[in-house]
């Protein structure tokens, strides 16, 4: 028979579970939402994996000295990709320069884009307003070149100055660009009548320049 004091000590002592009870207690404890909230999210796992990748990439302790070598190869690959992107898409144009020129064109206020100018020219042509259609379509040619960053039209630039500059960039259309500039001056300043045929010539050179690739800079005469 266990003495009274001994019996109380036995009842107060923590029970030692067997293997099955220990597993059940552990599962019950880990099912607490507090533990589930502490689990890393998928984003955490991805971020950790990316971090470990770069740490391993530049780790000089890789066997055989492959750490620095692999990092060098990765850097070369990045440079090749960047160079290839420049060759395919070209150097990013300075959008600020083009934006600064959209408020004036051939000495007059003009804020429309090339697409808007072409649409307006077609509307004038549809109404038989050939003089205005020619003027607006020539402006569309200039605005298109500015938007592409291949020709600049600073304040005060004349239509013939633009035509000469554009002709150096698009040599196959140089003569037609000069004729379009002459048509612009004829109907705009000399008040000569326009015609459907004259508008067709201007719109044709606009389409040709829009679809053409600029001549390489080293091939453009100064």
From TrEMBL:
Residues annotated as domain Protein-glutamine gamma-glutamyltransferase-like C-terminal: 139-202
Keyword Transmembrane found: yes
Pfam family, one: DUF4129
Domain of life, source organism: Bacteria
TM region positions: 69-91
Keywords: Membrane, Transmembrane, Transmembrane helix
Designated name of the protein: Protein-glutamine gamma-glutamyltransferase-like C-terminal domain-containing protein
UniProt organism field: Microbacterium terrae
């Amino acid at each position: 028979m266990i003495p009274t004091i001994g019996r109380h000590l036995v009842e107060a002592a923590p029970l030692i579970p067997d293997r099955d009870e220990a597993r059940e207690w552990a599962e019950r404890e880990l099912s607490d939402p507090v533990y589930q909230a502490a689990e890393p999210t998928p984003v955490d796992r991805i971020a950790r994996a990316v971090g470990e990748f770069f740490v391993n990439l530049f780790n000089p302790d890789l066997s055989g000295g492959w750490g620095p070598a692999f990092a060098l190869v990765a850097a070369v690959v990045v440079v090749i990709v960047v160079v290839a992107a420049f060759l395919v898409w070209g150097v990013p144009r300075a959008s600020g320069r083009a934006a600064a020129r959209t408020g004036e064109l051939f000495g007059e206020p003009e804020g429309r884009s090339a697409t808007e100018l072409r649409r307006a020219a077609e509307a004038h042509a549809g109404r038989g307003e050939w003089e205005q259609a020619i003027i607006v379509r020539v402006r569309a040619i200039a605005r298109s070149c500015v938007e592409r960053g291949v020709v600049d039209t600073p304040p005060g630039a004349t239509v013939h100055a633009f035509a000469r500059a554009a002709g150096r960039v698009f040599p196959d259309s140089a003569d037609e660009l000069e004729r379009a500039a002459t048509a612009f001056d004829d109907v705009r300043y000399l008040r000569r009548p326009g015609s459907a045929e004259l508008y067709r010539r201007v719109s044709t050179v606009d389409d040709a320049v829009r679809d053409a690739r600029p001549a390489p800079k080293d091939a453009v005469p100064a």
